[in-house]
Amino acid sequence: MRKLHVLLEPSMKSMALLSNLTFLTILRLEYCSNLTMDGFNPLIAVNLIELEVRTCNTLAADMLSEVASQRAKLLPADYISRLEMLTVDDISGLLVAPICNLLHLLHTLEIEYANYWMQSFTEEQEIALQLLTSLQNLRFSYCGGLQSLPQGLHRLSSLKELRVFECPRIRSMPKEGLPVSLRKLKMNCRSAEIDEQIEKIRRTNPDLSVED
Protein backbone atom coordinates (compact mmCIF):
# COMPACT_ATOMS: atom_id res chain seq x y z
CA MET A 1 0.00 0.00 0.00
CA ARG A 2 1.34 3.40 -1.00
CA LYS A 3 -1.45 5.77 0.09
CA LEU A 4 -3.70 5.74 3.13
CA HIS A 5 -6.33 8.25 4.27
CA VAL A 6 -8.08 7.62 7.58
CA LEU A 7 -10.94 10.04 8.35
CA LEU A 8 -13.33 10.16 11.31
CA GLU A 9 -12.44 6.76 12.69
CA PRO A 10 -12.81 6.90 16.50
CA SER A 11 -12.54 3.12 16.74
CA MET A 12 -8.93 3.27 15.59
CA LYS A 13 -6.98 3.47 18.83
CA SER A 14 -3.51 2.15 18.06
CA MET A 15 -0.81 2.89 15.48
CA ALA A 16 -0.01 -0.83 15.64
CA LEU A 17 -2.69 -1.31 12.97
CA LEU A 18 -0.36 0.44 10.51
CA SER A 19 2.86 -1.25 11.61
CA ASN A 20 3.27 -3.33 8.43
CA LEU A 21 2.66 -0.44 6.02
CA THR A 22 6.33 0.38 5.50
CA PHE A 23 5.91 1.33 1.82
CA LEU A 24 3.54 4.24 2.45
CA THR A 25 4.38 7.42 0.56
CA ILE A 26 1.24 9.39 1.51
CA LEU A 27 -0.45 9.20 4.92
CA ARG A 28 -3.42 11.31 5.98
CA LEU A 29 -4.94 10.97 9.45
CA GLU A 30 -7.89 13.24 10.27
CA TYR A 31 -10.23 13.39 13.24
CA CYS A 32 -8.83 10.25 14.85
CA SER A 33 -8.75 11.68 18.37
CA ASN A 34 -8.51 8.25 20.03
CA LEU A 35 -5.48 7.19 18.04
CA THR A 36 -2.39 6.64 20.20
CA MET A 37 1.26 5.83 19.52
CA ASP A 38 0.89 2.31 20.93
CA GLY A 39 2.64 -0.13 18.63
CA PHE A 40 4.02 2.56 16.33
CA ASN A 41 6.65 1.26 13.92
CA PRO A 42 9.06 4.06 12.87
CA LEU A 43 9.69 2.22 9.60
CA ILE A 44 6.26 3.27 8.29
CA ALA A 45 7.66 6.81 8.03
CA VAL A 46 10.79 5.89 6.06
CA ASN A 47 9.21 6.30 2.62
CA LEU A 48 6.67 9.01 3.44
CA ILE A 49 6.69 11.95 1.05
CA GLU A 50 3.47 13.54 2.29
CA LEU A 51 2.10 13.51 5.85
CA GLU A 52 -1.14 15.20 6.90
CA VAL A 53 -2.37 15.00 10.51
CA ARG A 54 -5.39 16.91 11.78
CA THR A 55 -7.35 16.66 15.05
CA CYS A 56 -5.24 13.78 16.31
CA ASN A 57 -3.75 15.59 19.30
CA THR A 58 0.10 15.64 19.10
CA LEU A 59 0.33 12.57 16.87
CA ALA A 60 2.43 14.16 14.11
CA ALA A 61 5.07 15.37 16.55
CA ASP A 62 5.02 12.06 18.43
CA MET A 63 5.54 10.08 15.23
CA LEU A 64 8.44 12.18 13.96
CA SER A 65 10.00 12.36 17.42
CA GLU A 66 10.00 8.56 17.61
CA VAL A 67 11.58 8.34 14.16
CA ALA A 68 14.29 10.75 15.29
CA SER A 69 14.95 8.87 18.53
CA GLN A 70 15.08 5.46 16.80
CA ARG A 71 17.19 6.71 13.91
CA ALA A 72 20.43 5.08 15.07
CA LYS A 73 18.78 1.77 15.99
CA LEU A 74 16.51 1.05 13.04
CA LEU A 75 17.71 3.27 10.20
CA PRO A 76 20.98 3.87 8.32
CA ALA A 77 23.34 6.31 10.00
CA ASP A 78 22.98 8.78 7.13
CA TYR A 79 19.17 8.55 7.04
CA ILE A 80 17.21 11.71 6.33
CA SER A 81 13.46 11.87 5.95
CA ARG A 82 12.01 11.81 2.42
CA LEU A 83 9.13 13.95 3.65
CA GLU A 84 8.41 16.84 1.27
CA MET A 85 4.96 18.01 2.42
CA LEU A 86 3.70 18.28 5.99
CA THR A 87 0.26 19.54 7.06
CA VAL A 88 -0.60 19.77 10.77
CA ASP A 89 -2.90 21.58 13.17
CA ASP A 90 -0.66 21.26 16.22
CA ILE A 91 3.00 22.29 16.19
CA SER A 92 3.66 21.87 19.91
CA GLY A 93 6.59 19.48 20.04
CA LEU A 94 6.97 19.50 16.25
CA LEU A 95 9.29 22.46 15.67
CA VAL A 96 12.24 21.11 17.65
CA ALA A 97 15.79 20.51 16.48
CA PRO A 98 15.79 16.67 16.50
CA ILE A 99 12.76 16.58 14.19
CA CYS A 100 13.67 19.50 11.94
CA ASN A 101 17.17 18.08 11.47
CA LEU A 102 15.54 15.09 9.77
CA LEU A 103 13.43 17.15 7.38
CA HIS A 104 16.11 18.21 4.91
CA LEU A 105 13.81 17.68 1.91
CA LEU A 106 10.69 19.34 3.30
CA HIS A 107 9.54 21.99 0.83
CA THR A 108 5.96 22.64 2.05
CA LEU A 109 4.77 23.19 5.62
CA GLU A 110 1.11 24.01 6.19
CA ILE A 111 -0.24 24.87 9.63
CA GLU A 112 -4.05 24.81 9.74
CA TYR A 113 -6.48 25.45 12.55
CA ALA A 114 -3.59 25.64 15.03
CA ASN A 115 -4.34 25.63 18.73
CA TYR A 116 -6.18 28.83 19.59
CA TRP A 117 -3.84 29.44 22.51
CA MET A 118 -0.89 29.64 20.13
CA GLN A 119 -0.21 33.38 19.83
CA SER A 120 3.39 33.36 18.64
CA PHE A 121 6.39 31.13 18.10
CA THR A 122 8.70 30.32 20.99
CA GLU A 123 12.44 30.93 20.73
CA GLU A 124 13.00 27.16 20.39
CA GLN A 125 10.48 26.96 17.55
CA GLU A 126 12.05 29.94 15.80
CA ILE A 127 15.49 28.29 15.94
CA ALA A 128 14.16 24.93 14.76
CA LEU A 129 12.34 26.55 11.84
CA GLN A 130 15.69 27.75 10.48
CA LEU A 131 16.76 24.11 10.13
CA LEU A 132 14.17 23.60 7.37
CA THR A 133 16.64 24.76 4.75
CA SER A 134 14.65 23.40 1.76
CA LEU A 135 11.38 25.05 2.76
CA GLN A 136 9.81 26.81 -0.24
CA ASN A 137 6.15 27.08 0.78
CA LEU A 138 4.90 28.11 4.21
CA ARG A 139 1.18 28.39 4.85
CA PHE A 140 -0.89 29.46 7.84
CA SER A 141 -4.65 28.90 7.58
CA TYR A 142 -7.39 29.55 10.14
CA CYS A 143 -4.93 30.12 13.00
CA GLY A 144 -7.32 32.26 15.02
CA GLY A 145 -5.06 32.89 17.99
CA LEU A 146 -1.87 33.65 16.09
CA GLN A 147 -0.81 37.27 16.63
CA SER A 148 2.54 37.26 14.85
CA LEU A 149 4.43 35.40 12.18
CA PRO A 150 7.84 33.87 12.96
CA GLN A 151 10.29 36.71 13.48
CA GLY A 152 13.04 34.74 11.70
CA LEU A 153 11.20 34.42 8.40
CA HIS A 154 13.83 36.56 6.68
CA ARG A 155 16.38 33.78 7.32
CA LEU A 156 14.45 31.17 5.29
CA SER A 157 16.55 31.67 2.18
CA SER A 158 14.72 29.07 0.06
CA LEU A 159 11.21 30.37 0.77
CA LYS A 160 9.27 31.19 -2.42
CA GLU A 161 5.66 31.45 -1.25
CA LEU A 162 4.08 32.58 2.01
CA ARG A 163 0.33 32.20 2.50
CA VAL A 164 -1.55 33.63 5.49
CA PHE A 165 -5.27 32.95 5.28
CA GLU A 166 -7.91 33.81 7.87
CA CYS A 167 -5.49 34.73 10.64
CA PRO A 168 -7.20 38.01 11.67
CA ARG A 169 -5.19 38.69 14.83
CA ILE A 170 -1.91 39.19 12.98
CA ARG A 171 -1.45 42.95 12.96
CA SER A 172 2.08 43.41 11.63
CA MET A 173 4.84 41.76 9.63
CA PRO A 174 8.08 40.46 11.20
CA LYS A 175 10.42 43.29 12.21
CA GLU A 176 13.20 42.04 9.93
CA GLY A 177 10.84 41.66 6.99
CA LEU A 178 10.61 38.72 4.61
CA PRO A 179 13.28 36.70 2.79
CA VAL A 180 14.54 38.19 -0.47
CA SER A 181 13.88 34.82 -2.11
CA LEU A 182 10.10 35.28 -1.62
CA ARG A 183 8.19 35.60 -4.88
CA LYS A 184 4.56 35.30 -3.77
CA LEU A 185 2.74 36.57 -0.70
CA LYS A 186 -0.93 35.64 -0.29
CA MET A 187 -2.47 37.29 2.73
CA ASN A 188 -6.01 38.32 3.54
CA CYS A 189 -7.22 40.05 6.72
CA ARG A 190 -4.51 42.65 6.22
CA SER A 191 -4.46 45.79 8.34
CA ALA A 192 -3.40 49.23 7.14
CA GLU A 193 -0.14 48.77 9.05
CA ILE A 194 0.56 45.49 7.26
CA ASP A 195 -0.16 47.05 3.86
CA GLU A 196 2.29 49.83 4.64
CA GLN A 197 4.95 47.35 5.71
CA ILE A 198 4.41 45.26 2.59
CA GLU A 199 4.94 48.31 0.41
CA LYS A 200 8.29 48.91 2.10
CA ILE A 201 9.24 45.28 1.53
CA ARG A 202 8.33 45.50 -2.16
CA ARG A 203 10.72 48.42 -2.64
CA THR A 204 13.62 46.11 -1.84
CA ASN A 205 12.03 43.07 -3.50
CA PRO A 206 10.27 44.28 -6.67
CA ASP A 207 9.75 40.69 -7.85
CA LEU A 208 7.38 40.02 -4.97
CA SER A 209 3.76 39.41 -6.01
CA VAL A 210 1.13 40.23 -3.37
CA GLU A 211 -2.40 38.82 -3.42
CA ASP A 212 -5.36 38.76 -1.03
From TrEMBL:
InterPro entries in the cross-refs: LRR_dom_sf
Top-level taxon of origin: Eukaryota
The protein, known as: Uncharacterized protein
Organism placement in taxonomy: Eukaryota, Viridiplantae, Streptophyta, Embryophyta, Tracheophyta
